[in-house]
Design a protein that fits this description.
The structure is a homodimer of 343-residue chains.
Chain A (H helix, E strand, L loop, with lengths): L1 E5 L7 H14 L5 E6 L1 H10 L7 E5 L10 H7 L4 H11 L4 E4 L3 H12 L9 E7 L4 E5 L9 H17 L7 E5 L10 H12 L3 E6 L3 H4 L4 E3 L2 H26 L3 H9 L1 H10 L2 H4 L1 E5 L4 E5 L5 H16 L2 H23 L1
Parallel strand pairs in A: 1-2, 1-4, 2-3, 4-11, 6-9, 7-8, 7-9
Antiparallel strand pairs in A: 5-6, 5-10, 10-11
Helix pairs in contact in A: 1-2, 1-13, 3-5, 4-5, 6-7, 6-14
Chain lengths: 343, 343
Amino acid sequence: MKIALDAMGGDFGPSNIVGGAAMALKEYRHIERLFLVGDTPQIEAELKKLKCNDRRIEIVHATQVVDMCDRAVDAVRRKKDSSVSRAVDLVKKGDATAIVSAGHTGAAVAATTIKLRTLPGVDRPGIAAVIPSETNVFVLIDAGANSDPRPEHMLQYAIMGSVYSRHVLRYKKPSVGLMSIGDEDMKGSDLTKEVFKMLKQSDLNFRGNIEGHDLFADPVEVVVCDGFVGNVILKTCESIGDAIFNWLKHELMKSGARMAGAYLARNAFKTIKKKVNYEEYGGMPLLGVNGICIIAHGASTPKAIKNALRVAAESIEHQVNPHIVEEVSRHHEKAASLEPALQ
Amino acid sequence: MKIALDAMGGDFGPSNIVGGAAMALKEYRHIERLFLVGDTPQIEAELKKLKCNDRRIEIVHATQVVDMCDRAVDAVRRKKDSSVSRAVDLVKKGDATAIVSAGHTGAAVAATTIKLRTLPGVDRPGIAAVIPSETNVFVLIDAGANSDPRPEHMLQYAIMGSVYSRHVLRYKKPSVGLMSIGDEDMKGSDLTKEVFKMLKQSDLNFRGNIEGHDLFADPVEVVVCDGFVGNVILKTCESIGDAIFNWLKHELMKSGARMAGAYLARNAFKTIKKKVNYEEYGGMPLLGVNGICIIAHGASTPKAIKNALRVAAESIEHQVNPHIVEEVSRHHEKAASLEPALQ
């Protein structure tokens, strides 16, 4: 498989990205080619530092980088030679099957949507974040591609999230919950009330509305929400996890007995920290585009980039896109067959 | 001060509510009268169990209870003799200054808004949740009163949240952040982009957009969001805090050494648990109604109810409502004076 990696995106520039590329190539023998897209001298310098001369690497030069303050669509239109745009071009031309970027999320979404278009039957792509609960992992979709979706977009998110859950995470009949502000059917915003009706009519395994406190206590396998809410949930989870560990650390340093206790229990902390560490999950697939695009965390470490490349490989292997096309088409047919009955 | 307590609301019926009332009366001597509104025999039975015969208690009989599956506005219109409606009536008649309810949030919001109306200059009330971070506490507004606000409602939330932060939490010049999905000015949903412009023009201490991961890492003192997003944040925070502690407990039980460690460090855990325990915060003021209304957690323990009564007392003492009227009017005047300049 062939993957294009935006080597310039992310908060720490090319060093973490190239570092992750080198790690991934060592671990994943099935990557046949890895395009590192960006400023050639910087990429070469990083490879040299790492003493990495893997022949599967091909550097593709790009002179521009999308800044965090650029507007997404503008960035695609104006910075034609940006690393993310050039990486998407490789997928468009068929040289690569997937792109991975830790840069400006909006720009990655816009570039792939504009250049690769969406899959047949899908109007807008959604970001699927995989989030750990105590007993399982669940897919949160949309985690930030589309802040102002229409109800039908959210139905498509539910379908795509279910496909991903079934084919990649191996849940047989993934349960779907609609993020809302009350368990009862009629509760929610104007938007979620519309989506509720659509999900109820679909043949997804729809469990109804779920609330913030169901996320970890009584988790469903697919959580559907608009991209604004999803992004807030994702970042809040990161934030509060870190906050609790910081407070705990601070408290544990307050006496000798506590410090001794923390030492004895250190492996318990390590296990949890690993579980809530986004690095392990690596990247979030942008589902619904005609190609594979993995959004990595802006603050990605090399390990996170390595895992984002793993996620890209999984999406290719599990044929996520053909399955999405099939499922969406089935839902459209079912909806069309229901329409006369509803009149 | 005189407070009306909806004795029937909440997941556990009158026992926790009446229990909380008894605790509060012991602790807060400045409560002159506490109306317990609901089914008299049930309330009397609870008081008897607790051997509580405090003379400041007055039972006000109400024959109905709002169920969680009732629609908020319908509940107010149809269940005229519900405990929450009758409690609000006491405030309307001037018999009580504040109402506290752990029942159906939407019904409490609707009953107070319909019967007491909003404060002059305020269009829609917002729930202000006080949330702990490592270094301080912050106000999140709106935490669930209004899922589909207009931009001007959110400006009013920012003003009211600042007033509460200044007068009750004692922050001198509370910093205000707008919950969004990117730090940069132009990022967000259609709604938050409009609100951003309004906040920028206001003379609030506006810090710009904040993201989920700023909530605890780099907290502002007032976080503004729509009621849907706020409710999701609030419940997600509760959920993930509990989840992490459950995982940790599970991990700590896995070996003798870990259990010994946990024992030595037990006070550190207790401190954190106390800090993230909603019981300590008790209730969330519904700001903007012409009266004082405190929304308590549906799963309130007696201690949480006691603290909700404390929050009601604080709102009365600190004259939150007159301060809101003054601030909102100042902002309206400023906006009116700016208008010609903008044309």
